[in-house]
Each structure stands twice: as structure tokens, then as C-alpha cells.
Amino acid sequence: MFSTAEYISSAARFTRTAERGLMSGERAAHLISAGRLRDDPPKRLVLLDVRVGAGGPDRTSFRRAHLPGARFVDVDADLAGTATERSGSRPLPDTETLTAAIRRWGIHYDSTVVVYDDSRAVPAARAWWVLRWAGLPDVRILDGGLRAWREAGGALVSGAEPAAPGTTTAQPAGLPVIDTAAVAALPERGVLLDARPREHFRGDGEFAGHIPDAISAPVFDDFDERGLLRDEHSLRTRYRDLGLTAGATAATYCGSAMAAALQVFVLATLGIEIALYPGGLSQWACDPARPLVRGESAAPRPIPPP
């Protein structure tokens, strides 16, 4: 049994750990708290600022104030390819363009890359996903983004900061993707999640509904009012109730692979791998023959055994 002194000492250690935001397991492999980044930053750290404003990539806010040493990432020019009539609005970047960006940011294969934004982690998640898909082994999102950093008393600087070139080459295929034909067939044998808000799923947003038999799973429900990722137990319970059981084949989509990339990230913190549909509804809707369904989400169906 603990003595009073031992109990107080243990409680103090727990409090200090909580304040620093220490994590473990898969969560720590993909997420970092503001306290940890401030007090005990990873070695070979590269910080990427992926802020987006009303008019698109927000380089002006970056120049005004950013984390010390951060490099600016243009979510459109750096993390997407050129859109065509059939590609959807945000196709994957080509290897050459992505390699040039990775080296410009000063990333090496053994770098720890931390990405952040001030937009509910959506642009940061796009950067996280693209870099992990490109083969980088250690990419994390700053939990709570710029707001959490400010609340933790983290320093901010202005202006642009030069970075020594990196050496890494993009090697796509680090994360699974799914194409349009496979998305259409997936609900018969697995789980297809729609990461958008429920009203968009119902057909009240940019697109007139959702892909047939998809399940509404708004990814913003995975975060609290401060933009911090919810606890592991809550997340596991939620996705189990959505039908995402061990061994299930699953994929996620949104309008243009932004919110869906965030959902891939959330599930990665649970040790669950799920495919991304890069084209999203912006690609699905290119062909008027592909149906969109309005209305509420159907209940998750039992997944047939493999």
C-alpha cells in the first residue's frame, strides 16, 4: 500500500506528466502536445506551418507570427497536383514536385516533422497524410494547433526563416489509397466512412448527398471544443459503434481529401489503418452516372467474414 508521501509524490509526477502532455503508443507516434513540443522537442525537428485563411494558403499570417524555425507549406501548391476534369479538386502531388518541397523544407529521412495550423487540424492533417504517404516515417500533428501552443506559453516569431536543404526523396505508397471503382464496391464487403459534417452528408452542402451505403462519421466529433483530440477510449468506442471492427476493410472520403485525411490520422492514433479516397466527392461527382444519396446515414451493417 502507498504511504501518504508516496501517494503525494506519485500524484505530483502524474500532474507534471499531464501538464507536459506526455503520450504513449500509437498516439505518441502521430500526435504531440504543445507542452511536450515546448519543453522536450524531438531531435532533428522540422516544423511545418500549414495555415489556410479565407482566401487560401495564409502566408501573411505566417510571416506575422509562427513557431520558431517553422517553414510555410502551401496546401494547394505543395500538397496537391494539378486538377483535371476527372481528377477531383485536389489530386495527389507528383513525386518530383513533392520531393522538391520536402527538400526545400529541410527534411531528412531521420527528421521528426511536426505540422500545425489554426483550422481544426484539417490542413495539418493533409500535410501529415501526404508526408506519410510519401514514405516519411515520423510525422506528427501538434494537438490543438497554434491555439494550444499560445495557451502553453510557446514562443512565436515573425518573418521568414531560411532552412538548409533536406535530402529526402518522396516514395509514394506509404499509406493506402482507394480508387473510385473500389469505393463504389466497398460497402458490400467493408466500411465506407464519410468524414464531412452531417448536414453535408444529408445533401445540404456543396454536394447533393453522399456515396451510396456510406456511413456518416463527422471527423470533427473526434475533437473537443479546444480542438484537442479526444481520449483513446472515447474514440475506440465511437468507431466500433460505426462498424469499424478489427480486421474490417475500410476507407474514408470527404469533398477533396482534407477532412478524410484527418480521419485517417485519428484512426492511426488508435493503431487502425484505413484507406483514403484521394479524389473524394469532387471526383465521384465528375461522372453524372455515379449516384449521390440524400438523407440520414444507415445503421452500420455486419461485415461478412473474409
Automatic annotation (TrEMBL):
UniProt entry tagged with the keyword Repeat: yes
Top-level enzyme category: transferase
UniProt GO MF annotations: thiosulfate-cyanide sulfurtransferase activity
Domain Rhodanese: 41-158, 186-291
Reactions mediated catalytically: thiosulfate + hydrogen cyanide = thiocyanate + sulfite + 2 H(+)
Spans traversing the lipid bilayer: none
Enzyme Commission number(s): 2.8.1.1
Assigned keywords, A-Z: Pyruvate, Repeat, Transferase
One Pfam family in the UniProt entry: Rhodanese
Matching PANTHER family: THIOSULFATE SULFURTRANSFERASE (PTHR43855:SF1)
Descriptive protein name: thiosulfate sulfurtransferase
Natural source organism: Nocardia amikacinitolerans
